[in-house]
Amino acid sequence: MFALIQSAGWPVWPLLLVSIVAVALIIERGVTLRRSRIVPDGLLDKVLADLRQKGASNEMVNHVAAHSPLGRVLAAGLRNVGSTREVMKESIEETGRAVAHELERFLNTLGTIASIAPLMGLFGTIVGMIEIFAAQGAATTNPQQLAQGISTALYATGMGLIIAIPSIIFWRHYRAAVDGFVVDMEQQAIKLVEVVHGERRH
Description:
- There is one protein chain.
- This protein is an all-alpha fold and about 200 residues long.
- The protein starts with a helix and ends in a 6-residue tail after the last helix.
- It has nine helices and no strands.
């Protein structure tokens, strides 16, 4: 591996740094953006059952809020359970926007890496081409310098693409997952509002 890096030349070092960041973000988002953690099954049913039995006590609301991102959204509605439908929905929407923003954390960075990695590879290619022309422009062509320039150009291009392709795949996957979570939370929050205000039984 070290020999490969030496063959690629110095332009590969920024690409290696970017690849480490990309892998770290992909793993972190993969661990964080799990459905069981964001929108756990059965939470709304449990909240409605507790609400009918005990009411929206502070202890119950705080417990729901600490449970998961969906719990935070539902807790925002429970805190305004005695208010009008509009007030309850508004508080849920405000919390929902904050939760959605947190779920999108680091996704812009991953998308940026997916965009700039090919450009960084192209930069390495240009550096390699300059080395090639420098070798050919000398009075006597230097085969070693020519080979170094070709290696730099090819390795940088290849590595830029190797970083960009998985990054954009995971970026799109995580964006779609977040969008799905937000829609799911919105539907469950609306169901809570409708049950509380007697527009729906369950």
